[in-house]
Amino acid sequence: MPLHWLLGLALFGGLFGGGADQGCATAERTMQRIERDWPLRASGDPLRRHVQALGARLGAIAGLDTAVHIHLVRNLEPLAFALGGGQFLVSDGLIALVGDEAQLAAVLAHEISHQRLGHFCSAPDSADQRIDLGAVVQHFDLQREIAADRAAETLLARAGLDPGAMAGVLVCLQQGHGASAQLSARIGALAPAPPPHPEHDSPAFTRVRAQLVDELDGLWSESGSCRPR
Fold it and tell me: Which of 65, 69, 70, 73 is surrounded by the most beta carbons within 10 Å?
């Protein structure tokens, strides 16, 4: 299924989205639909292996009671969300967008925090924004997003990573894709983000991200990235 139409929704539901479908029991069925309908990177892909390792590390530190499985969608739009049951999706476009590895970790920490906080095991509020992504239905709730943002800050600090990267990636999105009241509220609820430090990127991340940029050459412009020049 083409995902190019998701950009207008990404700041709300797809990117840093809350619970998918209607509870924690549906993650396996949702993942089956995604594997059928969406273009995913193979399990042996170097980029996926790197993101998987980072996500697994954060999941272990967070104390999740299930293994973390990160799936990479081959799509240019910045997209990341959790399905519940330890299943998480991140797009090529998100990895190309983030300013540094700490911001990528912040995205993963946010999604892992949704699961740790139990945002998949309660029925969505009738006032939640419901976003139909085809294989996935997202329910956006601002207070849950803020709770996951704050939990992600704590998780990043416990992992020895810059907790300011959570606010930093939200500012990155705001600068690159326009402000929204919800995004501004989330930024305001966090500590101000310090300047990013790309020199903190691991050599492995620098390598796989450069390979991704080369792969997307002609389809995606690095001017859309928050990476400092």
Answer: 70
Tokens 């967070």 -> residue: 62
User: What integer pLDDT is reported at residue 172 of this predicted model?
Assistant: 82
At residue 218, the pLDDT reads 66
Residue 132's pLDDT band (boundaries 50, 70, 90)? low
Give Cα 76 distance to the centre of its chain: 14
How much is the pTM? 0.83
| 68 CB-contact burial (10 Å; exposed 0-12 / middle 13-18 / buried 19+) | buried
Distances in whole angstroms, Cα of residue 118 to Cα of each of 123, 180, 219: 11, 26, 37
Report residue 156 as tokens: 């990043």
Q: At 40, is the secondary structure helix, strand, or coil?
A: strand
